Amino acid sequence: MSQHRTLLRARRLLRDAMSPVEQDMGVLLYGGAIIDVAPYDDLRGVGAEVVEWDGLVMPGLVDAHSHLRGISTRRQGVEDAELERWVVRLGALTALDGRADALVAACDLLRTGVTGVLAVHHSFAGPEEYLASARAMRGALLTAGLRGDVVLGVTDAHELAPAGAVVSAAPPPVDAPALLHALAGLGLGDRTGDVRWATGPVGPQWCTDATLAGIAALAAEHGLRVHTHLMETVHQRDWVPDGTPVERLARTGLLSDALSVAHGVWLSRSEQAELAAAGATAVHCPTSNLRLRSGSAPVPAWLAAGLPVALGMDSATEEDGPDMFAELRAAVRNAELHERPGLHREVLAMATTGGARALGRRRLGAVARGYDADLVLLDGPPADAPDVESLVESASRHDVRRVLVDGELRLDDGVPAGCPEVDDLRAGLLGTVDEDEVARRFRLASLAAAEAEVGEALGALAGGPGARR
Ligand SMILES: [Zn+2]
After folding, report:
1. Distance 403 CA to ligand 1 centre (A)
2. pTM above the 0.85 mark?
3. How many A from CA of 284 to the centre of ligand 1?
4. Over 70: is that where the pLDDT of 467 sits?
5. Distance, CA 283 to ligand 1 centroid (Å)?
6. Ligand 1 center from residue 206 Cα (angstroms)
7. Distance 397 CA to ligand 1 centre (A)
8. Residues 196, 295: Cα–Cα separation, whole Å
9. Could you tell me the distance, in angstroms and rounded to a whole number, from the CA of residue 235 to the centre of ligand 1?
10. Distance between Cα 116 and ligand 1 center (Å)
11. Are 330 and 350 in contact (CB under 8 A)?
């Protein structure tokens, strides 16, 4: 944290999603916080070092659902498919150095103006290996200088196919009690760099009730926030016979205001109201929902139900890197499908204050007195956008020039300060991916039978009452 006062003079300032764009403004920073926001002329005499920005300053963005994949699944030859088939295909991915992969992902997030992230960690490995890869993910966020939560995701049942179905490529059994016990070894209260641990089922339907209750107990004991995938596809409501995913979260003590849920495409009206009443946050992932054929989330209905909404990219990135502005546009287009055009402000609020809520951080998501100094500095033509609507429609990650997190310059002229060699790191990962291409094709081919089995099992579900909403 910077110990001297800095006055950032912005030619244009967007304080938050609901404000107009203002001209020639000053943002006074001290000790990682914003201590004043006012017209520059009112602040020029305060005795601070002045930094001029001939562009637009806006609040840092929050990616509220990520898997911190530095190399996209498509770049690894895993083509998009219906979620359940795609999950089988993920078994063919090339094993990459976890820290390098997550560090490339974190730097790419900075490059698109993301300052806070909710990152899901999950592995079918034993506790020792699981802890090592979770630490690597957290270390990547600390090195890049992002803030956020690393979610210790747990899965122990029916991961690939509904209860009762037999799938030949099923992952090895997970000893969930041993894993939950081992997680305490991570130092769950550590808040260094504002990177915190969180936990959650990867999806409620992929856990036994005992494991869901164990996760709730771990979260309660250590004061952790909880994050899960929820009702991502139509098949998940009837994945297990003894309760819907929302019922099972509720009865095991996981439904609370500490909870955020990703996707939610198939939440019923009453489930939306139940989540809203509990104070939970829904994380909308429009690009991922489209690419994995999950469906279109009825987000205008969520807003009408009073359900707080954040925005997540779900690591569903194109080969040339993630673009949070493209995700904003995807959310606007998704709302149009539900006959609510022009939701630009609401969508930007999802990616700022909504994300802050998903992270359980109150002082994020706005350029306002008392807030954390997480700022994005844009230049190029979109920096001249007269309002939020045209900014959302025209900006891209290529307009992001500088990013401050906690008052520190974490991205300068597109270069991440914590990892200036990130492009070499990416080249190394791509080299590993390319060397593995032939072997990976064989692995993918060998998973085709399992994919077909999963498809058959889904067909049995989709024909039943499970397709109800
Ligand atoms: Zn996800």
Report:
1. 25
2. yes
3. 11
4. no
5. 10
6. 13
7. 22
8. 32
9. 16
10. 16
11. no
Q: In the structure, how many helices (H) and strands (E) does the chain have?
A: 17, 16
Residue 263: closest CA among 234, 306, 225: 234
Helical (H) or strand (E) element with 416: strand 415-416
Distance between Cα 12 and ligand 1 center (Å): 35
Question: Residue 159: helix, strand or coil by DSSP?
Answer: coil
Q: How far is the CA of 267 from the centre of ligand 1 (A)?
A: 16
Which strands make up the sheet holding 281-284, listed edge to edge? 61-66, 114-121, 147-154, 195-201, 226-230, 259-263, 281-284, 309-311
**Which amino acid, 168?**
S
Contact 164, 240 (CB under 8 A): no
CB 62 within 8 A of CB 114: yes
Average pLDDT over residues 156-180: 86
Tokens of 182: 């081992």
State how far the alpha carbon of 364 is from the alpha carbons of 39, 61, 183, 278, in Å: 21, 9, 28, 22
C-alpha 119 – ligand 1 centre gap (Å): 9
- Beta-strand pair 6-14/49-59: parallel
- Inter-residue contact 430 to 71 (CB < 8 Å): yes
Give me ligand 1 centre to Cα 94, in Å. 18
Whole-number Å distance, alpha carbon 414 to ligand 1 midpoint, is 27
Place of tokens 């049995």: 460
**Residue-level pLDDT at 461:** 82
Q: Where are the domains of the chain?
A: 59-365
pLDDT digits (tens, 9 = 90+) for 447-456: 999 999 999 9
Q: Which fold has domain 59-365?
A: TIM Barrel (3.20.20)
pLDDT in tens, 1-17: 456 899 999 999 999 99
Query: pLDDT digit string (tens) for 208-266?
Result: 999 999 999 999 999 999 999 999 999 999 999 899 999 999 999 999 999 999 999 99
